Each structure stands twice: as C-alpha cells, then as structure tokens.
Amino acid sequence: MPRTSRVVLPNHPHHIIQRGHNRQVVFVSDKDYNYYLENLKEWKYTLGCKIYAYCLMTNHIHLIVDPGKKIENLSLLMKRVSGRQTRYVNKLEKRSGTLWEGRYKSSPINKNEYLLACCRYVELNPVRAAIVNEPEKYKWSSYRYKVGMEDHYWLDLDQSYMDLGLTKKEREARYKEWVKDAIPDGECELIRKAVLRGQLTGSHRFVEDVAEKIGRRIKFQGQGRPKKK
Questions:
Q1: Most buried of the four, 67, 68, 100, 129, by CB within 10 Å?
Q2: What angle do CA 21, 192, 112 make, to 5 degrees?
Q3: Which whole-number Å values give the CA distances from 217 to 13, 15, 113, 220, in the listed order?
Q4: Could you tell me which residue ranges the Transposase IS200-like domain spans (predicted)?
Q5: Distance between CA atoms of residues 209 and 112, nearest Å
C-alpha cells in the first residue's frame, strides 16, 4: 500500500516523533543524549530551522521544528541528525544497520492555537511515562530551559511563550505554572493522534485553509481549539 505524502508547511512548527528500530533503545549514556543534541543544534543553524521544544526518551524522540521558508529543510534536518546518531551508535557497538524506524512521523501545528500546547505535550512525556513525577526532574527535555534551570541559548522561544510575561523571570514562572495546570479534556489525545496519523494539529478552519493552499484534501480528526479556562 503506498504511503501518503507528508504534509510540510513553510514557516510552521511541526511536531515530530521518531522511534528506534523495533522500539530498540537509542540512548544509553549521557554521551549519547549530548551527541544527539549537539548535532541537532549544529543542523538547526546550518539549515536555518527553529527548535521550539524537544524530549529525548530512551527509545524515541519528540521535536517541535519549524523548517523556515524551505520545507525540504525539515527532512534534511532529520536525515542529518538521525544519520549521525546511527553511525555513532554503530561505531560504539561495532554493528551495522539502521537505528531508527524507516520514517519519522510529523504533524504541522497551527502556532496560534496549539504550539504552546504541543510544547507542553512534548515536555510532559517523561511524566506520562512515569519516569519522573515532575518535568524539571528529567534532564533531556527543553522544559528546564524554559523555567530557568538551564541555559540552552540555541533553543527558540515562540511568541505564545513570550506573551506569558514582560520579563524572563515572569515568563519562566508562568510557564511552569501553566505546564503543571490542568490540561483541557481531549488536548493530549488530539495532539497524539494528529502526529501519529500525519494530520494537522489545529482547528477545522486551519485544516481547510491549508487544504486550499496546497490544493489537496486533508483529513481532520479534531475537536477545535483547546477550551480556555
């Protein structure tokens, strides 16, 4: 059965998931995680992409990436970073073959509706997996940077995050409070299904607008915007 072509949009963030081949372990030591992040940083700058969030789990990764004007930069970024990690692990373990599943999953995000929610979804992954009980206790995600615990100068801060406060301290405090606040019903399921199915993360209007721009019908599985409190 032929694969459906991936929807990639210029100047839009995309939620990406890539898993280890047969769900095998990808990251074992701190050096493994750091090597991936160093390559992610290098290719972000080389290709002019933006990285809004990340979470590296033992056997898969979550990223929020904006490819900029050139949509091909999304696949180039993933190809370069994943390829280097494969060669690095193969050399360490004196093995050959693939490290990752053949195709990463991605979902374009409506930045005004869901970007901040997708960042929260990504950064709470270790909590949902019961690895830690608080997101700040997990060192391999972008959360610690956004609440002022680490200095990742290469990460990008989206406008929704910047609107949380007038000062850096205020934004960090409000983001921490927001991430730990109650999540609207259905938000996690909508985000999860969108990326696993390769659909858009956004409202029905967003899906219709994108379909009109690219001249292609897009399936919609959602419930509109997250409810405001």
A1: 67
A2: 125
A3: 20, 20, 21, 9
A4: 9-125
A5: 14
User: DSSP readout, 194-215?
Assistant: HHHHT--BS-HHHHHHHHHHHT
Q: Domain spans of the chain?
A: 14-212
Cα 116 from Cα 112, distance rounded (Å): 8
pLDDT band for 220, please (50, 70, 90 cuts).
low
State the pLDDT at residue 209. Answer: 86
Strands of 105-108's sheet in order across? 50-56, 60-66, 14-19, 105-108
Q: Which helix (H) or strand (E) holds 150?
A: none
| Bridge partners, residue 107, by sequence | 15
* Mean pLDDT, the chain, whole residue set: 91
Instruction: Give residue 224's pLDDT band: very low, low, confident or very high (50, 70, 90).
Output: very low
Regarding pTM above 0.85, the answer is yes
As a whole number of angstroms, the distance between CA 74 and CA 57 comes to 21
Q: What is the pLDDT of residue 222?
A: 52
